[in-house]
Write a structure and sequence with these properties.
about 350 residues, alpha/beta, Rossmann fold, 5-stranded parallel β-sheet, two-stranded parallel ribbon, about 10% strand
Length: about 350
C-alpha cells in the first residue's frame, strides 16, 4: 500500500510541476457548490452527509480525513496548486483556518446541496443561498483584514468556481415525488437555471468577475445509478445522461447570455461531462483498471457512513479506480478533471 501511494504521489507531483509553470494573476480561488467541491464544511453541520472519517482521506496529507468526499484531494485543490496559490482550499467553517488562510482561497460548498432549496433540506445541509451569505461575511472579514481597497482588488481578481446540480436531479427530482409532480424534467431544468442565473448575478453584484460554472456529469454512469439499473446489467442509465446533456446545453446558452448582459464579467462553462464519460468508458487509457464501481466497500451503493474503515471490501489501490465511493471520484480522477479544466475552460483566465 505504501509503495502504491508513493508512486501515485510521484506521478501527481510530476503533473503539478508542469502545471505550476503557468503564470496566472489570480490571488485567490473562491468555491461554491456540493460534495464535488466541499472541503469539509459539512463537518460542522448536523447532517448524515459527512466524510470526516477513514477510509476517506487515506491518500490526503498525513492520511487525514477532512470531510472531502474522496480518498485524497478534490479538483479545486489541484486547480489551486496548479495556479501556484496553495495545495488545498480550506472549508470556510473550519476553525483551524483564519482569514489570512481564506484570503488565498476558500470553499463554501456543502455536500448534498443543490440549486433547489428543497434539495438541501433533504439531508439538512447548507443551501446555496446560505453559501452566498457566508461569502458576504467573508467579504466583511477580508475588508477588515486587508482594508477596503486591497480587499476589493482580491475579490475582483479572484477565480470563482461553481460546481452544483447533480443532487437536484438524483437526490430530489428522480428520488422523491415532490418536484416531479409539479415540473416536467425540462421545466425543472429551467427552474434550476433560473436560480443559477440569479446566483451568478448576485456574485457579480458582490464584485465577482472571473467565474467558472460546471455542468452536470454523466450522472447515469455513477456507480450508484448503475447499481439501480440491475436488470439491464448495471449499464449507465441513459435517461439521466440525456437530461445532463440537455441541461448542460441550456447552461452554456445561459453563460453566453450573461456574458452579454453583465459588463466586464468573464463567465465560462466548465465541461465535466465529456472528460468524465471518456474516463469511465476508457479507463485503461487514463491509467485506471475499474470504471464501473468505486474502491470503498463494494463500490456499488456505499458512500458517507456506509463507506467506513470497518468494511472489509475496500480496495487497497484507489488509483486503479475511477470512483472512490459509489458517487464520488478518486483523487486521481479529480486531478485529471482539474487538468482538463485548466487546459480548456479556465485557460481564458491564465
Amino acid at each position: 500500500m505504501a509503495r502504491i501511494k508513493a508512486i501515485h504521489l510521484l506521478l501527481l507531483g510530476q503533473f503539478i510541476v508542469q502545471l505550476v509553470l503557468i503564470q496566472a494573476e489570480i490571488p485567490s480561488i473562491i468555491v461554491f457548490g456540493d460534495s464535488s467541491v466541499d472541503a469539509g464544511n459539512n463537518n460542522y453541520v448536523a447532517t448524515v452527509a459527512k466524510s470526516n472519517f477513514q477510509p476517506y482521506g487515506c491518500d490526503f496529507y498525513n492520511s487525514r480525513p477532512t470531510g472531502r468526499f474522496s480518498n485524497g484531494r478534490i479538483a479545486t485543490d489541484f486547480i489551486s496548486e496548479a495556479l501556484g496559490i496553495r495545495p488545498i482550499i480550506p472549508a470556510y467553517l473550519d476553525s483551524y483556518y483564519n482569514i489570512s488562510d481564506f484570503a488565498k482561497g476558500v470553499s463554501f460548498a456543502s455536500a448534498g446541496t443543490g440549486y433547489d432549496n428543497y434539495t438541501s433540506d433533504i439531508l439538512s445541509v447548507i443551501p446555496l443561498w446560505k453559501e452566498l451569505e457566508y461569502f458576504k461575511d467573508y467579504q466583511n472579514r477580508l475588508r477588515a483584514y486587508f482594508g477596503p481597497i486591497k480587499a476589493s482588488k482580491v475579490l475582483s481578481e479572484a477565480l470563482y468556481l461553481i460546481s452544483i446540480g447533480t443532487n437536484d436531479f438524483l437526490e430530489n427530482y428522480y428520488a422523491l415525488p415532490v418536484r416531479s409532480t409539479v415540473y416536467s424534467v425540462e421545466e425543472y431544468e429551467d427552474f434550476l437555471l433560473g436560480i443559477a442565473r440569479n446566483f451568478i448575478t448576485n456574485l457579480y453584484i458582490l464584485g465577482a468577475r472571473k467565474i467558472s460554472i460546471g455542468g452536470l456529469p454523466p450522472m447515469g454512469c455513477l456507480p450508484l445509478e448503475r447499481t439501480k439499473n440491475y436488470l439491464l446489467g448495471k449499464i449507465c442509465i441513459q435517461k439521466y445522461n440525456r437530461v445532463a446533456k440537455e441541461y448542460n446545453l441550456k447552461l452554456q446558452q445561459l453563460v453566453m447570455r450573461l456574458n452579454q448582459e453583465l459588463g466586464g464579467i468573464q463567465l465560462v462553462y466548465s465541461d465535466i461531462y465529456t472528460i468524465l464519460l471518456d474516463i469511465i468508458k476508457n479507463p485503461q487509457s487514463f491509467g485506471f483498471e475499474i470504471g464501473e464501481r468505486g474502491c470503498c466497500a463494494t463500490g456499488r451503493y456505499e458512500m458517507s457512513y456506509m463507506c467506513n474503515k470497518l468494511n472489509p471490501f475496500t480496495c487497497d489501490a484507489p488509483n486503479k479506480y475511477v470512483f472512490w465511493d459509489s458517487f464520488h471520484p478518486t483523487e486521481k480522477t479529480n486531478f485529471i478533471v482539474a487538468e482538463h479544466a485548466i487546459n480548456n475552460s479556465l485557460g481564458v483566465f491564465l
